[in-house]
Amino acid sequence: MLNLTRRLPVYVTSRPRQSTWRTYSAPTNSNIPPWRPSNILDDWVQREAHPISLRQLTFFGRTLTESRLLSSANYVRLELPTRIAHRLRNMQTLPYSALTNEHISHVYEAYYRAFEIFRKVPEVRTLTDNDRFCEALQTTLKEHLTVIPRLAMGILEIQDSVSGDECDRFMNTLLRSRISRRVIAEQHLALNETFHSPWHFDGKRSAIAPEDEFVGEIFLKCNAKEIVEKCAQRASELTRKAYGPTVSLPKIVLQGHLDTTFPYIPSHLEYILGELLRNSLQAVVEQRSSTEPPPIEVLICEAAQHVIIRVSDQGGGIDREILPYLWSFAKGPRRMKRLKNLGKVPRLAATMQDLQLPPSHLDSAAGSGEKFGSSLASLSGRPPDLRLGIGLPMSRIYAEYWAGSLELHSLEGYGCDAFLQISRLGNKNEVLSTRATMDA
Ligand code: COI
């Protein structure tokens, strides 16, 4: 249960609520009301996050020395509590009834615990210190696996006290920030693993394993074609599970620059392409054509600075009433359906694996009619019919995170074209704030 007395009594109960995220700015010491003592969180909220680019991460990790590994640890050690502090402060601006929602308060508590753990980590000076730090990172990453489903559920439940637009800004800010924290934490863990791998000699050899060309989590030669194929297979399996073994699935046909490679974190691309393909498959299947279903075409186009991946289906397009809310976490006619679905989701799932539902639950998947509803977890670890409707907005956050974009064009009555643009050069900083949320 949320411990409000210890952490935010005056802030939440006495401070006037901020009307939007846009107008919110962290209080400076001079405007802290006299009745509320300055606290440690305020100090961390004053700090700025330091964004990084894929290229920086790559160059930094390429030649891995002990001192670089320790620098990486210290960057993460300071960056995590800073980024978490900003999000805690965002959460504190929610109305009391929203913050005390079961799911939102669960996330708040988890973040507060993580903040307390990481802010107290002393400077990492030795490999032993680093081992201890890595353990804390691993434990926290695991603990936070339920953050996304919790937020997705919470946001649907607090709409009596928070407007749909505010909910969307809140979700965008929190999820973008979560990606950023997991990227820097996982990158450090991956570098640590590289450092301790048998083929690495401190600074004398490239940290890149010759056979796989990974620098930490970054795959230098990420091949869109291979990822599309992998996601196509997985999305087809999920659709078959959801609609039954006799369902006739469309072929997924690849065209264009199939040899294109670029530096990227494969799991991010897998998430986005998995969602797009799954939506397309579902849309085509629900057309219930008696003839062979028309193929889904995936075009990969390599330009000087970008790779563009277009996913085209003939699934009938998107309903007019849904279209304006396609990128919303909280708004639109699907909200009620999603709210109803909440009862089906195990509420106390400890891990993503726990979210696998019993077979009886899967029976209700077919014909749910929610064309663009989507998943909680990454494509690999979720039940086939689990739909809280966050897959598309979440995919766009992933795309924009490394300065890319995701757009969807619906051709009413015919199908959909999704355009995913990826920055090829990897030289753009992670995008920590959106146009609507100017705080990092
Ligand atoms: C998250 O997954 O939400 C995190 O913040 C993880 C990070 C503290 C390592």
Notes on the protein architecture:
This protein is of the alpha+beta class and 440 residues long. Helix content is 45%, strand content 11%. The chain has 15 helices and eight strands. It has a five-stranded mixed beta sheet with strand order 3-5-6-8-7. A three-stranded antiparallel beta sheet has the order 1-2-4. A hairpin with a 3-residue loop joins β5 and β6 (306-313). α11 packs across α12 (266-286) and α12 runs antiparallel to α15 (391-401). It is globular. Residues 1-38, 344-385 and 435-440 have low confidence and may be disordered. 2-OXO-4-methylpentanoic acid is lined by residues 80, 114, 137, 140-141, 144, 147, 178, 181-182, 185.
Helix percent reads 40-55%
> Which percent range describes the beta-strand content?
5-15%
Spatial gap, N to C terminus: 28 Å
One letter per element, helices H and strands E, the order comes to HHHHHHHHHHEEHEEHEEHHHEE
Number of helices in the DSSP assignment: 15
How does the helix and strand content classify structurally? alpha+beta
Q: Give average pLDDT, whole number.
A: 80
Number of strands: 8
What is the makeup of the main sheet?
A: 5 strands, mixed
**Low-pLDDT runs:** 1-38, 344-385, 435-440
- Specify the overall morphology: globular
Query: What strand line-up does the widest sheet have?
Result: 3-5-6-8-7
Bound molecules: 2-OXO-4-methylpentanoic acid
What integer value in Å does the Rg equal? 22 Å
